[in-house]
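Structure first, sequence second, as always.
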C-alpha cells in the first residue's frame, strides 16, 4: 500500500513523466516558458526554433532542462510552414526519446511590427503572417492528428490570441490568422473522436515578450496596460501553467475549447 501511495504521489507531482512534448517556437518568449514548465512536470522536451540566429537560445533552453534532468531535452530546428520540416520535427522527437509524441504545443508565430491597417497591409506581409500562423498551425495539427499517441494522453494545444475577441485595429492579418487557428482546432477536436487526443487553443492577451514590444511606442504600451483591469502586462508565467494543465490527464474533459488568458483585458 505504501508503494502504491508513493507512486500516486509521484504521478501527481510529475503528471507528464516520460511523455514526449514538442513545443514550437520555444527558444524564447511564451514558448520558452511553456517548454520549461512542461519539463518541470516531467515531460521530455523538443525545443523547436526556426532561424539560425535562435539556435543558441534554443540550446540554452534545452541545457537548462537537462541540467536538472539529464537527457530530457533536445533542440531541433524546423520551420512550421514547411510540411517536410514539420514531419522531420516529429521524426527527431521519436528518434531522440524512442517514443511516440504525446504533446504538441504550437507557439511559433509572427507579428507585423509595423502594425498596419488592412488598407496598408502588403500582400507579402499578409502571406508571411498566414504562412507561419495559419499554415504552420495547420501543418502541426495535421502531423499531430496522424502521429500523436492514441488511447489517452495525446494533447494538442495551439497558441491563439485574445485579439480574436478584442478585434483591435492595426492587427488585421495577425488576428485573422489566429481566428483561422481557433476555427480549425474546434473542428479538429471533433475529427479526433475515438483517439483520446484533445485539441484546444490558449489565447493570451498582451504578454511582456520581445514580440509584444517590438515596434511599439511607450504610449502604445501604456495604453494597453491601462486597458487591463490588473493595470499590467501579462507575463509568460501567467500562460505556461494553463498550457501545462491542458496537456495533463486531468484536462481530458476540456476539448475543442479556446481559453482566453488575459487578466480581463477582453
Amino acid at each position: 500500500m505504501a508503494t502504491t501511495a508513493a507512486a500516486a504521489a509521484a504521478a501527481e507531482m510529475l503528471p507528464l513523466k516520460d511523455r514526449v512534448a514538442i513545443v514550437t517556437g520555444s527558444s524564447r518568449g511564451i514558448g520558452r516558458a511553456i517548454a520549461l514548465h512542461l519539463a518541470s512536470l516531467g515531460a521530455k522536451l523538443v525545443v523547436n526554433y526556426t532561424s539560425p540566429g535562435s539556435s543558441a537560445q534554443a540550446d540554452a533552453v534545452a541545457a537548462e532542462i537537462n541540467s536538472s534532468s539529464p537527457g530530457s531535452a533536445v533542440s531541433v530546428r524546423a520551420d512550421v510552414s514547411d510540411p517536410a520540416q514539420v514531419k522531420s520535427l516529429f521524426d527527431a522527437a521519436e528518434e531522440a526519446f524512442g517514443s511516440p509524441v504525446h504533446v504538441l504545443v504550437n507557439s511559433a508565430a509572427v507579428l507585423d511590427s509595423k502594425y498596419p491597417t488592412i488598407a496598408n497591409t502588403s500582400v507579402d506581409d499578409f502571406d508571411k503572417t498566414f504562412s507561419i500562423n495559419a499554415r504552420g498551425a495547420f501543418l502541426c495539427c495535421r502531423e499531430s492528428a496522424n502521429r500523436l499517441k492514441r488511447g489517452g494522453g495525446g494533447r494538442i494545444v495551439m497558441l491563439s490570441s485574445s485579439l480574436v475577441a478584442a478585434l483591435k485595429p492595426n492587427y488585421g492579418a495577425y488576428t485573422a490568422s489566429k481566428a483561422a487557428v481557433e476555427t480549425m482546432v474546434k473542428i479538429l477536436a471533433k475529427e479526433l473522436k475515438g483517439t483520446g487526443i484533445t485539441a484546444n487553443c490558449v489565447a493570451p492577451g498582451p504578454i511582456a515578450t520581445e514580440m509584444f514590444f517590438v515596434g511599439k511606442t511607450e504610449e502604445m504600451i501604456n495604453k494597453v496596460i491601462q486597458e487591463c483591469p490588473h493595470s499590467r502586462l501579462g507575463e509568460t508565467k501567467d500562460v505556461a501553467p494553463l498550457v501545462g494543465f491542458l496537456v495533463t490527464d486531468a484536462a481530458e474533459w476540456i476539448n475543442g475549447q479556446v481559453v482566453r488568458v488575459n487578466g480581463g483585458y477582453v
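Margin note: The chain has a mean pLDDT of 96.
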